[in-house]
Amino acid sequence: MITLHTYYSSNSTIWILLPLLFLFSGTSCDNKEAEKPRVAVVVSTLNNPWFVVLAQSAANKVKALGYEAKIFDSQNNTALETDHFENLIASGYIAVLFNPTDADGSIANVLQAKAADIPVFCMDREINNAEAPTSQILSDSYSGCVSLGTYFVQEMNKSGKYAELLGLVGDNNTWSRSRGFHSVVDDYPNLQMVAQQNADFDRNKAMEVMESILQAHPDINGVFCGNDAMALGAYQALLASGLDDSVKVFGFDGAEEVVAMIQEGKIEATGMQFPVVMAETAANFADQYFKGKRDFPKKIPVAVEMVKSSNVSHYIKQD
To answer: Taking the model in full, what pTM does it have?
Structure first.
């Protein structure tokens, strides 16, 4: 520490210390200028390629806008998500781009950020509190699954036995997709649902659940899955049982692997979501908030497009 009396001990000391003082002062200013505001990207899980795209797209856009970004993986665990929020609030992050783990369980975390004057922009998944987040940018899952349900009825020729694999019970997307699907399919009495089980949006769990369903109902004709990871798991179980050619599989997400399998005739259809659109919208909103804007729409629906054999070529990723 430099004290004032040191400057007056001798002329030589003055001339030596003054340049050092300016040097330290200049370095401090440079460091301050180099510091960028930080934005947190908190996602439910990175154990699913779709959420990796969502998280990375958000982080990339944040960086392109001139901020620092850090991705936090909640591993589908609300308690871990809470730890992330406590950490980012204490560490001075200016905004959160948020993919919640649970529609109800995540509310407290968003309210905690709001109390600290940190805006939260939900991506893809909704929380059951319209006022807590600054805005929620969400896929229109219900409408997307109305379209899938219509195509399901057509491909099943309006009759047959089918199973449904549900996602996480605490995620509103699980129920929006199921309701959209059933709003159409339930009007056809010759379509019989013989099993409905949750597989938590997880590929491995879906494979295990599908294996169990096939033991009880080996004569099913179709399976509707609430996301593409579960569709892939279901297909693996069907392939292992030799039923991959006789059971029609439907998914939701628009995952690259599933789109390729639609082209190959292995999976019937999926609902194409647009994670990059949701992520970049959330990042742009955070930038606008930082620059003074406060009036944001509370909920923004992002349209879902159905991918099937007749249009799959439009969705194949080009190298």
So the answer is: 0.84
Answer yes or no: are the C-beta atoms of 246 and 224 closer than 8 Å: no
pLDDT of residue 35: 81
The DSSP 8-state label assigned to residue 318 in this structure reads P
* Cα distance between residue 48 and residue 1, in whole Å: 52
**Cα 70 from Cα 233, distance rounded (Å):** 31
pLDDT of residue 174: 97
Give the pLDDT confidence of 224-263 residue by residue, as tens digits.
999 999 999 999 999 999 999 999 999 999 999 999 999 9
Query: Tokens 């599933």 identify what position?
Result: 258
CA-closest candidate to residue 122, choices 283, 253, 252, 274: 283
Instruction: 154-157: list long-range contacts, CB under 8 Å, 24+ apart.
Output: 155/222, 155/248, 155/268, 155/269, 156/191, 156/221, 156/222, 156/248
CA distance 141 to 167: 13
DSSP-based three-state secondary structure for 205: helix
pLDDT in tens, 278-295: 999 999 999 999 999 999
- In 3-state terms, what secondary structure has residue 63? helix
Q: Give the residue carrying structure tokens 């959209």.
A: 180
Residue with tokens 């690259």: 256
d(CA 57, CA 73): 15
- Position of tokens 């600054």? 134
Name which of 250, 254, 255, 227 is nearest 238 in CA terms: 250
Compute φ and ψ for 52, nearest 5 degrees: -65, -45
Secondary structure class of 168 (helix, strand, coil): coil
Q: Yes or no: say if 256 and 232 are a contact pair by the CB < 8 Å rule.
A: no
Helix, coil or strand: residue 308 = strand
